[in-house]
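2024-03-11 09:14:02 DEBUG pipeline.ingest accepted 1 chain
2024-03-11 09:14:02 DEBUG pipeline.ingest length=319
2024-03-11 09:14:03 DEBUG pipeline.predict start
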Amino acid sequence: MTREIFMAILQKKISVVAPCYKESANIRALYGRVKAVLEANTADWEIIFVDTASPDNSEEIFRVLAAEDRRVKVIFFSRNFGHSQYGYAAGTDYASGDAVVWIDGDLQDPPELISEFIKKWGEGYDVVYGVRERRKGNALLRGAYKLFYRLFKKMSYLDIPLDAGDFSLIDRKVVDVINAMPERDRYMRGLRTWAGFRSIGISYTRLERGGGVTSNNWRRNIWWAKKAIFSFSYAPLEFIFYLSLGVFLLTVIAIVAYIIAYFINPGPRGFTTILLAVLFLGSCQLLALSVIAEYTGKIFEETKRRPKYIVREILNDRR
C-alpha cells in the first residue's frame, strides 16, 4: 500500500460490526485485537457489538467496555431473533463508517486479516471478503462445508464466491444498498453478492473458537443450508418440474410395458407393483409440497412486514 493510499485511508472512518451470542469468553480478546488493527490503519473508527440477547454475563462485560471506550457501541436486542444475520443487519444499519467490516464474535476469523481488507479497499475494491481456504476442527464437518459451498454455487442464480463467509469489508456505497433492501429474512453474504460492485477474496485459515461453546450443530447447519438455497436459488422449483417430467415419462413407459405384457402373458398383475407405484408417486408429491412449503413460508414472513429486529438499548449511540 502506497503512502498516498495509506494517508487517504487514515482520514476515513471504519466501523467493525460483531454480532455476539454467549461470547462472554471472547469479548475482551476480540475488542483488543480489533482495536489494535484499527489504530494501525485509521484515525477514526468504531466497534459495534450486537448482543443478540445472550443468557450469559455478556451484558455486564459490554457495559464496562462501553464505559471505558466511547468508540465502542453496543446494541442490545429485546430478544434473540434467531441467528447472527439480524445482528449484522442491525450493526450495519447503525454503522457510520466509510467502510464496514463484518466479523463473528467467536474469534474464528482472525481480526488481523482486516489490515489486508483495508489495503484492498484502498486499491479500489468495494467488497473484500475472506475465503476459508482451510478450517480447523472436525474433518467430517469441514468436508460438509466444502460440499455445501460448491453445491450452493451451482444451484444459485448468483455467482457466489466459494468458501466465503460473512467476514468481509464493504464500502459505504455497498452498505447503503444493503441497508435499503426491504426483505426481512436476511442472508447477508448473499445480499452482499447480489449488490455487485468490484470485489476480491483473500484466503485465510479459519480457526476454532477462541472460547466458550458453539451453539452450532448439524441440525443448525442444515437450517443454514436451507436458508441460503431457498433465498438465492430457484433450483428446487426447477427440480420439481424435471421430477414431474421424469415420473410422467416413466408412467407412459410402464403403461406401454403393461399392455405388451398383458398380450404376451394374460392374467392378473401383482399387488406389490401397484403398492410400490403408489408409494413412489406419493413420495414425489410430498417432496414437491415440502419444497413449495419452504418458498411459501418465506413469502408468508415477508408479507407480514414485521421489523427485522427490535433494539432494547444502545450504549454510546452518537448518531
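2024-03-11 09:14:41 DEBUG pipeline.report The longest helix spans residues 271-304.
2024-03-11 09:14:41 DEBUG pipeline.predict end
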